[in-house]
Automatic annotation (TrEMBL):
InterPro entries, alphabetized: Dimeric_a/b-barrel (IPR011008), DUF1330 (IPR010753)
Domain DUF1330: 3-96
Gene3D superfamilies attached to this UniProt entry: 3.30.70.100
Transmembrane segments: none
Organism: Variovorax ginsengisoli
Pfam families: DUF1330
Protein name: DUF1330 domain-containing protein
Amino acid sequence: MPKAYWISAYRAVKDPDKLAAYAKLAGPAITEGGGRFLARGVPAKVYEAGLAQRTVLIEFDSIEQATATHDSPAYQAALAALDDGAERDLRVIEGV
């Protein structure tokens, strides 16, 4: 079974306090769901049409595990804490 990856790009941070509240809840929810943080931060370099946005890469054992974690009550509570504090693009993709 291929691994799965969450790729989240932060287009804009509107409220740093809400983002901090989200992170405090989201980290444990993701790790409890089996997620492993592989990278996070602003890109060291961008090419082509790349944007220098905060990006987070998280690995899961499967698409099912990744989506179950996203849909879990614990992660949904983290999203509620974020409450429009950031504009993000979150994608779940299957590994090759």
